[in-house]
Fold:
Amino acid sequence: MKNYSIGIDLGGTKILAAITDINTGKIVDEVKNKTKKIRGNSNILNITVDTLSELFNKTSINKDDINSIGLGLAGQVDRKNGVLLNGVNLDVKKLDFKSPLEEKFNIPVYTGNDVEAAALGELKFGSGVGYSDIVCIFIGTGIGSAIIENGKIRKGASETAGEIGHIIVDLNGRSCTCGANGCLEAYASRTAIESRILGAIKKGRTSIITDLTNTSSISSKHIKKALEAHDEVVCQYVAEAVEYLSGGIASIMNFYNPKLIILGGGLIQSVDEFYLNTIKKARMKALPIPSKNTDFKKAGLNDYSGVVGASCLFLSYN
Ligand SMILES: [Zn+2]
Structure:
């Protein structure tokens, strides 16, 4: 039996490739490279090949003991053909990973959406162990989500299930990157909170944020510090995001009735107040029975849920 699998977490700032022990979820070896300035089909494929080659050079694990290479990709994925259809933040269109990587490394290649991969990682080795009906929600630049039903990723009729970020919470609301108006991620993603805070500062309100960072980028850690200092602007917009996010989650509890909701992403992991208030308010807004019976947990694998999950993608093809 082959005991190892390779996972690749490929995003707009970095590519992380790791060899995972598929029995324990432990990472044996890993290689990380920056992708910040690398864009376009051929460049992205090249850095993927280079990163994999580096990993094979580094490891003492025999290639014959590796059962698959799994790629968790940000964007729409054609799983059957191993193609990233539309990777907006990598400037990639219809990029075939499967054929060139299988040809070069002679190991089966599986592809999936990055959130789906992270959810699989949590199911197999993270906070989802012991559960079979789970919704995972990751709050970051956007809001990504995946549904696990009877222990398997629910893909949906056209393989796009789980887009909680685009449920509409305000009919006449803010415009969203998807083209619609009033989507949840336009209200409760880290990007949304950031733009509300920056907008208020621009209009003349004072905030500790201007002392914490001199760029227009506000990290989860800045938000945490500002909340600890009871900064009025940051408290206001975090509270606003909690209202919308908890409303979205309550809708999921009522509609889908999962046993467990896993929440992840920088803000959730580092700002307890954001996590705890979101859960509290979601329970208040949901119907009584799901409110009482839904468990909540933080993602357990932190930054590694994506790469560990990608190495488990072969399981979702069985
Ligand atoms: Zn949207």
